[in-house]
Amino acid sequence: MLSSSSSSLPASFASNLFFGCLLTFNVIILTSHFPTGLSKPGTNTTQQRHRQLSYGYYARTCPQVEQLVASVTNQQYKNAPVSGPATIRLFFHDCFVEGCDGSVLIATKQGSKELAERDAVDNKDLRAEGFETVTKAKALVESKCPGVVSCADILAIAARDFVHLTGGPYYQVKKGRWDGKISAASRVPPNLPRANSTVNELLKLFNSKGLKLQDLVVLSGAHTIGFAHCKHFLGRLYDYKGSKGPDPSIDSRLLKALRMSCPHYGGNADIVAPFDVTTPFVFDHAYYGNLEAKLGLLSSDQALFMDPRTRPIVQEMGKEKDRFFQAFAVAMEKMGAIGVKRGRKHGEKRRDCTVHM
């Protein structure tokens, strides 16, 4: 585990941090392969919805659904590794707005006065590779099991596949979600966390989805992979909370590296930096050790170590990868049950994930 003191960081870290710096300088290449962020994952009916889902939901109607989706995710990951974090992030954004119902996949109708979720300002950075993964998987599943499997379930399965493909745990996915009929950009802002959200704000949001304190910390661990644009952490580097100085909770070496890539004014808007400066391409538990070493990229990430309520969980997850993996699988199942739609009154089974039936 990395030390929380920058002066006592191991020598091996220096090379890792330098590697992180190189990543931000090579942004023109990176942004074509890796995502720019991975946001954290509504109601108290989550447990009720959870009981409506099952592992064998398609056992009779489409028993090969997971193998079909896996054939797509495996190929996508080989061709475009960005598809991994992009699809995981897409699942988070779907579940936190209107529930896990595939509403984030809907495209805005031409001439419509109301934009769909995917066109909301907060979703503008969602990578195309995430949407492409679902589209390809849906087409393959439809060719074998027409009109049976929802887009929402395909997204949930694909997200799990990519967690595993990037080095994380393989866990069973409960299925039975129907696709939602509502997709509105106006519903996105109040349902997604901000890069500078406080722990109180995060807890309020997560609680509104039926998730607890541990779920907040564990699901935030998805930031073990992925990247964020400078705009999401620029305030920490130059004018933290109006202080005209940097966030005191950021390691001095990381601060220097990030300032080199993200100037206060006039910087390249396409520049990104990794959430995890030590193992940015691997799904592991290094994210938590980074927080203890003041190496969190976003203010909302570092806040998890600074707050006495969440610090013990950060420390626990940072000690043992298997413990984090086990907790992450449980938390993803809980998140995957948020706002589940069932039946034709509330949902549909779209053949084209981008268009309502």
N-to-C SSE string, H for helix and E for strand: HHHHHHHEHHEHHEHHHHE
Could you give the count of β-strands? 4
Radius of gyration: 20 Å
Low-confidence regions: 1-45
Strand line-up across the major sheet: 1-4
What is the tally of helical segments? 15
Q: Based on the structure given, which CATH architecture of the domain at 64-226 and 275-336 is correct?
A: Orthogonal Bundle
CATH topological fold name of the domain at 64-226 and 275-336:
Peroxidase, domain 1
> How large is the share of residues in beta strands?
under 5%
Distance between the termini: 51 Å
Structural class per helix/strand content? mainly alpha
Question: What is the helical fraction, as a range of percent?
Answer: 40-55%
Taking all residues together, what is the mean pLDDT?
Answer: 88
Layout of strands and helices, then pairs:
Elements: H1 11-25, H2 27-30, H3 46-52, H4 65-79, H5 83-96, H6 128-144, H7 151-165, E1 179-180, H8 199-208, H9 213-220, E2 227-229, H10 234-238, H11 252-261, E3 272-274, H12 286-292, H13 299-306, H14 311-319, H15 321-335, E4 347-348
Antiparallel strand pairs: 1-4, 2-3
Helix pairs in contact: 1-11, 4-6, 4-7, 5-6, 5-7, 6-7, 9-15, 12-14
Catalytic activity: 2 a phenolic donor + H2O2 = 2 a phenolic radical donor + 2 H2O
Protein name: Peroxidase
InterPro entries: Haem_peroxidase (IPR002016), Haem_peroxidase_sf (IPR010255), Peroxidase_pln (IPR000823), Peroxidases_AS (IPR019794), Peroxidases_heam-ligand_BS (IPR019793), Secretory_peroxidase (IPR033905)
